[in-house]
Amino acid sequence: MSVQSGHQMFRDTRTAPRQRPTDTDALRRSRITRGAVMFRASRRDREAREALATIADEAATPPPAA
User: For a Cys staple, 41 with which of 1, 20, 48, 50, CB 3.0–4.6 Å?
Assistant: First the structure.
């Protein structure tokens, strides 16, 4: 591998589109992920809005009686 090819690999990975997690488990665990999804939802991303709606529905239901 040459230095040139190393630079090209870095540029390719840096500018590549990133996978956008809309997994509801990831939304529950990470506030950073939730913030990114909220930002995308404000930009009219339908998948992000649906993922946030499922989280909101789960939070609105009361826990089962013990």
Answer: 48
